[in-house]
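[09:14] KT: can someone run the structure on this one? pasting the chain below
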Amino acid sequence: MAIPETPVGALGVQDRAATRRLCAGVYVDARFRTAVIHEVYNARRRRVAPSYGYDLIPVLAHAWRAWWLSTVEDAVLLAVFCAALITQPAAAFFATAVLVDLALLGTLAARLSSRWSGLRTGTADDESSREPPPKSLENGMYVAALATVLALAVLLADDGMRGFRTAALVAVAPCVVLAATDVLRQLALNRLRRHLEMNRPSRTSRRLSVIDGQQRHPMVVYSGNEPFIGSGRRLRTWSFAQRLVETKGIGGEKDVEFAKKPFPTWDLVEELRQAITALGTEEDPETRLPGLIVDDSLFVEGRYAQSYAGELTTAPGADLVRRMLDSPTETARHHLTCRVESWGGDLVTTIFVHVSLQGRTLYIEFTTCGLAPTRLEYHVVDLVGGTGRMAAFRAAFASVRRLPAVAMAPLRLPAAATLLFGSARAGADSTAASLKRGFDIGASLSAREIASIEADESYFQTFDVAKHSKVIERRLLATVGEFLKEHGVDTTEFLQRATAILNNGIINTGSGNVDVTDAAMGQETSVSK
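[09:31] RB: done, structure tokens below
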């Protein structure tokens, strides 16, 4: 399958923060790891969402490594507990009670430390500072203490003082397993930091090859009412219809529409492509817009993708693009996709431009989407002290905080088996067979979108989205205006609409939230009118 590759320089080896942080995310966030495997890798009947600003293949490869690490840990923990329970039940009972006590005490100490830190720095209010520990934690400590006393009595009655040695070994075993797993996980993060594991796997499975072809495919198959899946939150959309009338003289004659269209849609799209692409290829770095990529994108809803089954298995050529431009009533829609990948791909601004000629009218639609940065906890791979030898030592000692996870190991293993079984069936691409049956094969989830932060991270990142959108929007309007003039189209109405669009600027509501007309970047943001 001939799929266009990411242009050289868009995301160089030294500037792939988004991919690196997403790879780190599958190690530090179990929910994200499970969602990536279950909803992307194992979803063989659905297409993959576009990958903007990152590469999905290494993320999936690391997701499976992290999954195997966690699954083996659960299996070993369960095996140790079962062996101890069969051979030394009294010692196993006492050791388990002590571990639960330590875990609850650690939870209480963490809450008290957090409260003390808030009081010392002045960030905690009076109500929260007087709030007692949760009732569930208090009751749990009482139950654990009672269980420990009973276990101690059983142990003394069974083995006497010799049973303490066995109980100590039983208690230390899960701690060693947890520490070993956390050290291995930290070593994986260390390799990510040194870029040793950033390249794609040398051998890819059949499923990864299918995903690789779909993530960069120019035809996007979506599900529901989200055609721009993978591009983040929709920030702004405007559109207008411009009548194609001949240029009038000074006398103010009546509007005269063209008997034949003054130009084909393809010519205008090519003019826009060249004008916007020039922003990213300027020789002067001061005037260049780095990270700009301009592509053709074809959007079709999953329920109507059957008509394009052939194009989905190959790279659509210029003939299909021309056909869609000439016949805007097709179930698929053409958009000129202008994407700016900044901050190492951690921030992506995407502008979708749709142009059509119908009813002797030029219709233009402009949509801006912003892909927010990755979650802050995934940035551990780039933080000072987040990687290295000392980080591995800290991970080994901090593993005691995960002692409550030992009790959940038997419950996680069946879910892990289900996930593994699903991956065995995901080898072949089943979207073609699903098309024949009339199923919706559209992408319903983007790994990059679910890994985004819930609010804007910084002032500059927030307004970079607005800046990139405005720069491209200004170039678009100027190019369309000049193009219409060159083809003898009256631009009086166009200039009025363009002025209104450009004057509808950005509104800052404070607290790092940015509103672009009627939408805000990041979740839980507000719109100011």
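[09:33] KT: thanks! Residues 89-121 form the longest helix (33 residues).
[09:34] RB: yep, looked fine to me
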